[in-house]
């Protein structure tokens, strides 16, 4: 469905991503018009924007020539969607409080379009209670979608949330595919914690980002998503039902209760647990070394994959390896009886990172997916998983 998409650019370095977004939207047949704040012109040239959009680009509310063409009220009426990206702290403050002192903010008040806001700023600014309060106000309004920012290295050198998502992700927010409609997807994510005593545990470095990105993208694409999550610092994605677990045994119970139509296991499950966790906090015993007896945890995904055909979901695992990636991944897929396995190399600094590459392995095929942001990789994995699932007898 062709949409009229108005893009409002405010003054942030991430404005450089907008020309690519415009090209993606135009490629899929959308009509795009652009307005910007005065500050945005410091970061992106209006000439570039005009060239990619093929339309006059406006920033001045009082430009008589522009008003003679499509006046600002007509422009507000024209738009089906109004994306403000990057949306700075300043712009969010104005929008939250109804201040309209330039074209971009005036259009916000004048339009009946669905509003998409992409907050983009330094991580400390984003975390400020004033900005968070403005975002909460805006998110609560009808027909408003706040697009979660990506986290990672920022232009200012800080590391944290506040990056503008990649153009492909922004496009998908504006025009979500609905190809996962009504499919029950269970995603597991994050680490497990295996208790040593009431205050200590064994765990791993999983951040949960890949699983959360998959859950968020599938929900946007229409799936009914259950996210079984170990402890992470991540917010529950919109439209996702989250079940919190701690240990591998908790995970097994939750997975058996909610296997879904498709079971996608991104959790980094501890292979072992402490045989006899202590009931009380353990004390040091002089200088003696500590020996912990460990027993193997249940292999959750292998248990799910071994369910009888009536309840067995289409089962997709991850193989995180530091060496012999494809050899180990192929063997793991076969051993656990998985339909697909996603091989990913964790020899670098993938844990907690914002980008990743992968190879999708089935019995018949191997598809390499290049290094990209975890959210872009999630979209691509969902494309391939959906296609492979539709080949099975369970669903069309
Ligand atoms: N997995 C699981 N339950 C476990 C261990 C792993 O469900 N007890 C799942 C993971 O979520 C992942 C896949 O199995 O989807 C492979 O996990 P990985 O840790 O790579 O494999 P292991 O079976 O632990 O093999 P190994 O540690 O020997 O490499």
Automatic annotation (TrEMBL):
Chain spans, region Phosphopantothenate--cysteine ligase: 185-396
GO cellular component, one term: phosphopantothenoylcysteine decarboxylase complex
Residues engaged in binding CTP: 271, 281, 298-301, 318, 332, 336
Gene Ontology MF terms in the entry: FMN binding; metal ion binding; phosphopantothenate--cysteine ligase activity; phosphopantothenoylcysteine decarboxylase activity
Enzyme Commission number(s) of this protein: 4.1.1.36, 6.3.2.5
Function of the protein: Catalyzes two sequential steps in the biosynthesis of coenzyme A. In the first step cysteine is conjugated to 4'-phosphopantothenate to form 4-phosphopantothenoylcysteine. In the second step the latter compound is decarboxylated to form 4'-phosphopantotheine. Catalyzes two steps in the biosynthesis of coenzyme A. In the first step cysteine is conjugated to 4'-phosphopantothenate to form 4-phosphopantothenoylcysteine, in the latter compound is decarboxylated to form 4'-phosphopantotheine.
Keyword Flavoprotein set for record: yes
Domain Flavoprotein: 4-166
Superkingdom, natural source: Bacteria
Positions annotated as active site in the UniProt record: 156 (proton donor)
Recorded family membership: In the N-terminal section; belongs to the HFCD (homo-oligomeric flavin containing Cys decarboxylase) superfamily. In the C-terminal section; belongs to the PPC synthetase family.
The entry's keywords: Decarboxylase, Flavoprotein, FMN, Ligase, Lyase, Magnesium, Metal-binding, Multifunctional enzyme
Protein name (record): Coenzyme A biosynthesis bifunctional protein CoaBC
Tagged with keyword Flavoprotein: yes
Xref: InterPro entries: CoaB-like_sf, CoaBC, DNA/pantothenate-metab_flavo_C, Flavin_trans-like, Flavoprotein
Organism: Cardiobacterium valvarum
Required co-factors: Mg(2+); FMN
UniProt pathway annotation: Cofactor biosynthesis; coenzyme A biosynthesis; CoA from (R)-pantothenate: step 2/5; Cofactor biosynthesis; coenzyme A biosynthesis; CoA from (R)-pantothenate: step 3/5
Annotated spans, Phosphopantothenoylcysteine decarboxylase: 1-184
Catalytic activity entry: N-[(R)-4-phosphopantothenoyl]-L-cysteine + H(+) = (R)-4'-phosphopantetheine + CO2; (R)-4'-phosphopantothenate + L-cysteine + CTP = N-[(R)-4-phosphopantothenoyl]-L-cysteine + CMP + diphosphate + H(+)
One GO-annotated biological process of the protein: pantothenate catabolic process
Cofactor note as given: Binds 1 FMN per subunit.
Residue intervals of the DNA/pantothenate metabolism flavoprotein C-terminal domain: 181-387
